[in-house]
Specification:
Strand content: 5-15%
Radius of gyration: 16 Å
Shape: rod-shaped
Number of strands: 2
Distance between the termini: 14 Å
Structural class: mainly alpha
C-alpha cells in the first residue's frame, strides 16, 4: 500500500472521529453545567469547540478522500 493511501485512510478515520465529537459537543456538551470560562458560559464554549471540531473533521475527511482517489 502506498504511503498516500495509508495516510488517506488515517485522515478519513480522524475526520470521522472529529465529526462524531463535534456533533456530540453541539448536541450535548455544556447542558446542565454551571461553569463559566471568563465571560463565556459553559454551553457557549462547547458550541465553539463543536463547530471547530466539525470543521476540522470535515477537512480531514475531504483530505482523506482526496488522497485515496488521487
Amino acid at each position: 500500500m502506498p504511503a498516500s493511501g495509508a495516510f488517506g485512510i488515517l485522515s478519513i478515520l480522524a475526520g470521522l472521529a472529529g465529526l462524531a465529537f463535534g456533533i456530540y459537543a453541539l448536541m450535548r456538551g455544556g447542558k446542565g453545567q454551571q461553569g463559566r470560562i471568563g465571560p463565556i458560559p459553559e454551553r457557549g464554549v462547547h458550541l465553539i469547540a463543536g463547530a471547530r471540531m466539525l470543521l476540522v473533521g470535515a477537512l480531514c475527511l475531504a483530505a482523506g478522500i482526496y488522497l485515496l482517489v488521487s
